[in-house]
Design a protein that fits this description.
homodimer, 200 residues, mainly alpha, Arc Repressor Mutant, subunit A, Tetracycline Repressor, domain 2, 9 helices, elongated, DNA-binding, DNA-binding (chains A, B), TetR_C (chains A, B), transcription (chains A, B)
Chain lengths: 200, 200
Amino acid sequence: MSPGPQKSFDVEEAVLTARDLFWERGYDGTGIRDLEVAIGIGRKSLYDTFGSKRELYLRSLRKYADTVIQSICDGLEREGVGALANLERVLGKLQKHHGSDGSLGCLLGVAIGQIGADDEELAAFLRGVLDGMEQAFERCLREAMGAGEVRSDLQPRDAARQLVALSQGMALLGRVSDGPARSRSIIRAALAALRPVSSS
Amino acid sequence: MSPGPQKSFDVEEAVLTARDLFWERGYDGTGIRDLEVAIGIGRKSLYDTFGSKRELYLRSLRKYADTVIQSICDGLEREGVGALANLERVLGKLQKHHGSDGSLGCLLGVAIGQIGADDEELAAFLRGVLDGMEQAFERCLREAMGAGEVRSDLQPRDAARQLVALSQGMALLGRVSDGPARSRSIIRAALAALRPVSSS
DNA sequence: GCTATCCTTGACCGATCGGTTTCTGTTTGG
DNA sequence: CCAAACAGAAACCGATCGGTCAAGGATAGC
């Protein structure tokens, strides 16, 4: 039923390569020729496998989103330590990844910045991903508030949305920042604002 | 010394038109043909006046930044009311402008999202603009803290950077949000986090 | 060996890109 | 009236865009 050789390249790895290219140069800035060369396959294989440039782009975004969402949810729900400690660790990781020198920012944020005004399909997908992040943050915040680790007068949903916006803003600013100082300040301020009491 | 007619179009108004086009469609998405039609001048005049597409883009960004920075600084330094009230008003204005439905986000944020990895000239300009916003926020925060309107245990610089990141993040998310609820949450949380005491 | 399937290469397509140039008014100062 | 400086329209440039297509090479089952 299937004579002939198997695919000579790993499809999922090709998606990762495409993701990195889109990440670095954006959708418009990444040409079909660039993708061919980077992935190392011919154009026919590329179109046979992925259909179109846009489909490959959406697939790259989906893969990236799955990874990021999974990582954040896992980090926020780790047992054994306090919820606030989980939050601190996750925010620290985000700062390290997206706030350092030469950062490309978050691929999702870059996608939002480049989305066309009438691209409702992509907008809906991105909304969904952001909702997932927001809910993970909200669960963690509720738990931390229950344990008295976070000011109890805050609205968990508002604070969660704030953290999502903050993460995206930090990642965006990281694209033009000249060092990790700014992003460290941002995370420090976010955590300080959550703490119930403090004296310098 | 200057025979011949005056320029038949308003240069500054042309920059505003170009700004709106870049804002709506991004740099790559805006073609020279689009700019001609929108501004209403021929291509020769366009190149004679502005030099190149990129120069017109930079000029648009500069004009936008001047307007925004001016507006924020004026709003934050208004006398007669408390510094926190000024901050609340400015953040509310940002939310109204960038967080509503169909928002295009902040042009500066969009530019950051679309900047090329090796475009140091544009990156330096954007860094400068963000620094200006940060300093304006920091001055306002210091004043508010001095008046006891804001928790005194916060670091003004960290909090100012947080507000810049938050503004950019909110404006970015506004591009895919389906209503003003999210951006309102974000601003509400930011202000709640600054307040020294509260018992909802 | 034959055939079918997958792969790659590379030519090719119409369209559009940023930018230059040529031409034809048209308006102004002298 | 004339020359200089301006304007706009459009032809034109090489390059690149996303996408298609036709021709082989390689590998598998029969």
